[in-house]
Amino acid sequence: MSEEEARIWNELGKITDPEIPALTLTEMKVIRSVRVNGKVTVVFSPTYVGCPATAQIMQEIRTCVAALGYREIAIETSFTPPWSTDMLDEDAREKLRMFGIAPPPDDASDIASALELAVHCPSCKSDQTTLESSFGSALCRQIFYCRSCRQSFERIKPI
């Protein structure tokens, strides 16, 4: 990786996800690559095809790169390989917990099975939780209720 590319990666690593502000775009693993060859090309993979934050994220990427002095900026969207919650590393999962959002299960390769696993409350760690709503404040979240600490919380859906 060139120094220029490293500098761009570093700055992109400061942009938080608009729907999950506990994580940056690089922690979410939605920035796939950065190339500098006369122009800057950033390859971006939305979390899913219908993600309503895609346009905002692309604008934030463009603004970030332009602030570094680049004028020619291309943002390519890629769904290959598709983004998955399995891409989140343990540090990202812990940041979600600290923010009050339960992370998705570690292995979401079988989504039906992943949705049936117990969800641990990010506040008290209890698994005495129940699904309140399949849809939370964003399409990628669900709302759960913890019977132990009596708190509602959101979980990132496994994808």
Key terms for this structure?
159 residues; alpha/beta; GMP Synthetase, Chain A, domain 3; 2 domains; three-stranded mixed beta sheet; 7 strands; elongated
Q: What's the pLDDT, averaged over the residues?
A: 93
Report the CATH C-level class of the largest domain.
Answer: Alpha Beta
Q: Helical segment tally?
A: 5
**CATH topology of the largest domain, what is it called?**
GMP Synthetase, Chain A, domain 3
Q: Which residue ranges are poorly predicted, with pLDDT under 50 across at least 5 consecutive positions?
A: none
Lateral strand order in the biggest sheet: 4-7-6-5
Cα-to-Cα separation, first versus last residue:
30 Å
Strand content: 15-25%
Outline type? elongated
Helix vs. strand class: alpha/beta
Rounded radius of gyration (Å): 17 Å
N to C succession of SSEs:
HHEEHEHEHEEE
Relevant CATH superfamily of the largest domain:
Fe-S cluster assembly (FSCA)
Q: State the major sheet.
A: 4 strands, mixed
- CATH architectural name of the largest domain: 2-Layer Sandwich
What does this 3D model show about the protein?
- There is one protein chain.
- The protein is α/β, with parallel strands linked by helices and 159 residues long.
- It folds into two domains: 3-77, Fe-S cluster assembly (FSCA) (GMP Synthetase, Chain A, domain 3); 88-156, no CATH class.
- It contains five helices and seven strands.
- The protein has helices at residues 3-12, 25-28, 54-67, 90-99, 111-116; strands at residues 31-36, 40-44, 73-77, 101-102, 129-133, 141-146, 152-156.
- Strands 4-7-6-5 form a four-stranded mixed β-sheet. Strands 1-2-3 form a three-stranded mixed β-sheet.
- Strand 6 (141-146) and strand 7 form a beta hairpin.
- The longest helix is centred in the middle third of the chain and has 14 residues, at 54-67.
- It is elongated.
- The two termini are 30 Å apart.
